[in-house]
Amino acid sequence: MKINSSSFATVSELCRGLPGDFRWGAATSAAQIEGAFDLNGKGLSIWDTFCAEPGRINDASNIRVACDHYHRYREDVGLMQGLGLDAYRFSIAWARVQPAGSGPWNEEGCSFYDRLLDALLGAGIEPHLTLYHWDLPQTLQEAFGGWESRAIVPLFVAYAQEVARRFGDRVASISTLNEPWCVATLGYQTAQFAPGKTNRALAMQVSHHLLMAHGAAVQAMRKLTRAPLGIVLNHTPAFAAEVLESDRRAARIDDGLNVRWYMDPVFRGHYPADILDYLGPDAPTVEANDLTLIHQPLDFLGINFYTRSFISTQTPPMPAPGKRGFTDMGWEIYPEALTQHLVRLAREYSPPPIFITENGMANADQVVDGRVADVERIQYVREHLVALARAVELGVDVRGYFYWSLLDNFEWNSGYTKRFGLFHVDYATQQRLAKDSALWYRDFIAAFKSSRGLS
Ligand code: IFM
Predict the structure, then answer these.
(1) Is 304 in the pocket of ligand 1 (CB under 6 A)?
(2) Residue ranges per domain, the chain?
(3) Is the previous residue joined to 405 through a cis bond, with omega within 30 degrees of 0?
(4) Which residue has a Cα nearest atom 4 of ligand 1?
(5) Running DSSP on this structure, what letter comes out for residue 256?
(6) Would the CB of 413 count as within 6 Å of ligand 1?
(7) Would residue 348 show up in a list of annotated catalytic residues for this protein?
(8) How many CB atoms lie within 10 A of CB 179?
(9) CA 383 and chain centroid, separation
(10) How much distance in Å is there from the Cα of 357 to the middle of ligand 1?
(11) Cis status of the peptide bond prior to 297, with omega within 30 of 0
């Protein structure tokens, strides 16, 4: 079935400024799709523990089976191939390959990723590997508090080195961390994510250890692999309501905590001074040379973009206008922020080439007569591609786009209640069904390639 061909023809035209070798992909992460939570020697992760705590996950679900990708990866690679994807972004479950997070490696766990990589390469799809997408081995959490201690850094480095040795020659890139802001803030300040703590000082210390682990792992992996190395950051640009004077100040702090707290040390070698002031006693302990370690040359920057944050200090706060509506996560749809933000990053940081490593929407999808007519998602993707293309026209070096997510999957504390996938998953049968957005994306990629004589 062809979907709405006029809309992708227009986008293809609007995307004419993108380089011919622009990568079209989709993304997932291990904990959200693999299942097989304790199979073949896999150790538990902090998300297994978190899911078992009453009240943590909205639908009281867990990640024991998820999308059963561990057993269905061939079928899933087939789905990617059917869409004509160039690239697939996935993560390694640390506890699958090294069950306790230190010590012996689990050959059966490693062989799963060997098979996955072989299947992807056989299908002509570039694998983009992420080392850490939130599923810390539980043993490390219990032994010394995981990211709460500097002791995590050498262990993460050893893990990264072994991954680089085993898989580095077959992957198109390695990202150290996915969204360290979420790990630190949602895991340690707001308790929405594992391990579920509420301590801002600890959250900031965790963010520092994450950044150190990133820098140290990049430095160590350079000697072992020629794969491009980078980091993936989630950016939610802050827009002030600009009703009160204080709105602008609050937006600057929000930006500082979400964007500059990670960009400044990675690309400039220091933390933002205004945020250190703002944090006061909650600022992390930083030792000599930590920032030099964090400030490593990178080959790419991954940006995950979903929405903006609208900052109002009024009581009650002024709501975001939401002219284009809100997703099923309640996130405002505001694609223009993507253009503005990319241009700002290029201007302020001169980063290496950027990949949009995640972008997508949760939608209240319904299967009706064997079809999911998710027009809202098609519209969302189209508008974000237009915004991305505009940034490229304005001179930003963006090399690829990964839709989040390939499949409906475990959406962390929302459990299975939010559907982000291009493919609908019936969790009772594990049947995958291409939504209209998947067919649109397939046809769009084909149109883009044919417009460049690539197919
Ligand atoms: O599902 C998550 C993903 O794991 C990280 N980035 C945001 C997505 C949607 O919330």
Answers:
(1) yes
(2) 5-259+299-451
(3) yes
(4) 29
(5) I
(6) no
(7) no
(8) 25
(9) 20
(10) 11
(11) no
Q: Is the pLDDT of residue 11 over 90?
A: no
Q: What is the pLDDT of residue 15?
A: 82
- 3-class DSSP state for residue 179? coil
- 337-380 pLDDT per residue, tens: 999 999 999 999 999 999 999 999 999 999 999 999 999 999 99
Q: Which superfamily does 5-259+299-451 belong to?
A: Glycosidases (3.20.20.80)
Asked whether 193 lines ligand 1 (CB < 6 A), one says no
What pTM does this model have?
0.97
Measure Cα distances from 319 to 134, 190, 255 in Å: 31, 21, 18
Give residue for tokens 């400030």.
295
Other Cβ atoms closer than 10 A to 426: 11
Ligand 1 pocket, 404 CB below 6 A? yes
Sign of CA dihedral 178, 224, 74, 70: negative
Res 360: pLDDT: 99
Q: Do residues 193 and 224 lie in contact, with contact meaning Cβ atoms separated by under 8 Å?
A: no
Q: Write out pLDDT tens, residues 210-247.
A: 999 999 999 999 999 999 999 999 999 999 999 999 99
Q: Which tokens hold the place of 149?
A: 């201690």
The tens digit of pLDDT for each residue in 66-82 reads: 999 999 999 999 999 99
